[in-house]
Description:
The complex is a heterodimer.
Chain A (H helix, E strand, L loop, with lengths): L9 H4 L1 H6 L7 E12 L2 E13 L4 E5 L6 H9 L6 E6 L2 E5 L4 E2 L7 E4 L11 H11 L4 H14 L15 H13 L5 E5 L7 H18 L3 E5 L2 H7 L2 E6 L2 E6 L1 H6 L4 H6 L4 E8 L2 E4 L2 E3 L14 E6 L5 E4 L10 E13 L5 E7 L2 E5 L1 E2 L8 E7 L4 E4 L2 E4 L2
Parallel strand pairs in A: 3-9, 3-10, 7-8, 8-9, 16-20
Antiparallel strand pairs in A: 1-2, 1-4, 4-5, 5-6, 10-11, 12-13, 12-15, 13-14, 15-22, 16-21, 17-18, 17-21, 18-19, 22-23
Chain B lengths: L5 H4 L18 H6 L4 H25 L3 H8 L7 H32 L2 H9 L3 H4 L2 H12 L5 H6 L18 H27 L2 H8 L4 H29 L3 H7 L7 H10 L5 H28 L18 H26 L16 H8 L1 H32 L7 H16 L2 H12 L10 H25 L4 H8 L4 H29 L3 H6 L7 H10 L3 H26 L8
Helix pairs in contact in B: 3-19, 3-20, 4-15, 5-6, 5-10, 5-12, 5-16, 8-13, 8-16, 8-26, 10-12, 10-13, 11-12, 12-15, 14-15, 15-19, 16-26, 17-26, 18-19, 18-21, 18-23, 19-21, 20-21, 21-23, 22-23, 23-26, 25-26
Amino acid sequence: MSTNPAIVDPTLTGPSAADETDPSRAGASLVGVGKKFVSKGRDVQAVDDINLDVNDGEYVVILGPSGCGKSTLIRCIAGLEQPTVGTIRLRGRAVYDAEHSLSVKANDRNVGMVFQSYALWPHMTVAKNVEYPLKMRRVAKRERQERVTEILKAVECEALAQRLPAELSGGQQQRIALARALVSEPGILLLDEPLSNLDALLRVSLRTELLRLHRTLGYTALHITHDQEEALEMGDRVVLMREGRIEQMGPPEEVYARPVSPYAATFLGVRNRISLTVGGDGLEHPAGVVTGTSSLAEGYAKGDQLEMFVRNRDTHLSSASSASRPGRDDVELEGTLAQIVLGEGGRRQYLLDIGGSQWFAQHAESDLALGSSVKVSVPVASVLLYQGENLVYPQ
Amino acid sequence: MTTTSGTHAHQLDEDAPSLRPTGVPGGGLRRLVTSYGGKIAWYAFAAALGFAVVTPIVVYFSRAFQNRAAAIRALPDIPGIRDIIITTILLAAGSTVIAAVFAVVLASLVLRVPPRYRGVAAFLPQLPLVVPPVAVIIGWIFIFAPSVGYGNTLLRRLPSFENLTQGPINVYSVPAIVLVTGVDLTGIVFAFVYARMHEISGALVAAARLSGASAFRAFMTVTLPLLRPSLVAGLVVVFLIGLGQFTAPLLLGSGHGIDVLTTEIFRIRESYPIDYAATAALGLPLLVIGLLSIVIQRAVVGDQRRYVTQASGRGMGARPSHWALVAVFAYGTITVALPVAAITLVAFSSFWNGDFGAIDFNTDQVRATLASPAVRQAVTSSVLLAVIAALIVLPLGFLAALAMSGVLRAPRLVQYVLDLVFIAPLAVPRAMLGLTVLYVFIRPPFGLYGTFALFVVGYVFIVLPFSLRSQHASLVGVHASLFEAARVSGASQFRAVLDIALPLTRRGMTAALAVMVILLSHDFAVSVMLRSPGNQVMGTLLYDFYSNGAFPQVAAMALIMTLVTSVLLALTLWIGGRSALENL
């Protein structure tokens, strides 16, 4: 991507700035980025000390609940908001540097952005919308038309070129917004909850679509979402945010397998949790003992508090009276079967009461009666154990 | 999803000056909306506009306080001042009550009109806002003047009034003025109330009905309480206008011993030398009440959020009734069509003497009036001056709308000042506004006496509030991301305004322009205050004819005024669609 020399801050040409230019030309690099503002006389730290490198061609998904600062972060990268501290570099070029009082304006940052509301201009046709970024970058008319046709073809919307945004369905608007963001081949594509305005079915099919486009065009992308499934499916890397900070960062498999904190586990959809105490013979909960946990309890003092997290899909339910011994590597808890509901994918979900905690179990032997005592067994390898905020098992 | 404060998230981010990269060269407007010193430019804009609007008002009204407020202390000595004040308040209160009742009843009726006709029906109560009020008042004179009004002549044929020589209805009376003014103001209250009622009548009323409330109880317990803020807002505005009402009292009252503050002020203005101090002192209470009402209105508007209802879907609207349509049409006919018919009748007669036999449908008067160079010149001047004033004000309104809708980031103080500046002229009654402009702008450094420029200045004051409203409305509903998308696409601030904000405001602009030109083309109060020999617009010429008692000419002039307005209105509807009128 060419940078317009006229708008590069003079400090950039100085020796200090030259030193700071990243030779690897990573897609984006954020160092110590923070944003604080005052709301109703109270200091709010929206984004706090974010350090993140996005490699060229990488698809990074930032995941977090609403209010965690992910939107603010992406808007800071786009130049729609100002951080208060830190440095932001896009393709090796500093676009924000608090120390050098440098802030390149949004229109000079060479980013593409897909907005949650799509933000298609209602008074322009699809073709005009998509052409606009090229026009702003003074691309010649001929080439503009070629590139618009090309990108519309890539998002499979060539037929819509002369329509107005109001004449498009939600999914089509989404594709056009994407086309507009990509047409100028920006240094980085920012996607601000791009799928959250679509209905569930369309959302899933557009995820695949986005992945396909990313494979074909190979752009660098930063995508934010509050949907953990979307994050895990789409990201080369997932960044989990919590209250303005990065809680965990890594490839989806790793993040999925080892959420670093109870917060991460909860947000990544681990639904079953129970507070345990280290007892004489393994871990105990208020209403009983968890069998098969003597090895887990090793190395802890009696009375230590631990939190156990288990995914639904890792549970197996059997009647309490059944003689079948669990496998050697299973932990086992006892509870009462409260309700049977139809869960995701048409599978039965069993609601249990275990010492006052609500659990969901997925696999069960047949004919369990409501209200009967049941045993839940979980392979010990699937257990997540936390002491305070830290993951202690698996190591 | 964002943790940023709401206002920030809704504005294009313009950086603090110290964080700005190299400046972008460019002209004045570009300067204002682009980077360099954006903040300073906004302050300058707000300050200059504030100065231009507020200074004349302050300068004029300060006359009342000169010589240790001699003019104010002399107020009790004005003959009949007690009656004048009582009549003024009576007129305002009476017409407010009438407007409130009519508006609520009409709004309920319109909601019962079959959906096909509802658009037209909703427009009818607001028709008196568009038809020149002077024409309507003149029409009522032709109908209910005590001895020669056609209405009275007809009524005297009834057995019970057979031996009367005058009446039974006297248009030159306080009740008549109250009624005429009330009907005129109904349109304003209706506009406030109808939109709200439309929202409320959906699911909220349905919920009340399903809870067992009768239609009446649902109205009293749900509709009316929810309507209160918009009703109060409407009534405050209307009471204020009622206090400053000039046209009806002047034409119907002042020749017959009925005076209000504005007509008394006009009487002083007509004598020479003009005692400006006395007029300022007389107008002072109107100004104070006007300012107070703006403060109250702002407070009520702030409160209004508590009454925000979801844009409710289809609830159970009252069952459509053709009688409702008939009733609304009857209202429109009586309040507008009848007076217009009366002026038409007189315009095409040789005399106006109340005798139906004398109506000979000759076109002499109309032809003579149309052929008169003075009339032609007045029509041209009216339209031209209206267009010029509107065009001056339009870009000011656009800039202010950019700041106040958050499209461009303007300092909070600037937004606040602009809000006040654009509403300030509404706090001053039209007649007072005219006198303010006369007093300030005939003096050095302006010296505009005897020029049309004086009218332009006066007209700018009148329409300033209307320039902002519809442009603001068309920007404020637009999601901030539309502008952000342009910025991210590489457009500068200026370019984003040009490519996105301007086209999106086009509709609002057309509407603002149309409304302003229509309002100005039939302005009476300001024009009469500013008139000088040789500089005539339609309103002033009509008043001259009226003062000379040339009634067929008055009728012809009123008719021409109505026609000009109708043409402008038709043009507006043709260009902008019916929604163009929503901002009246």
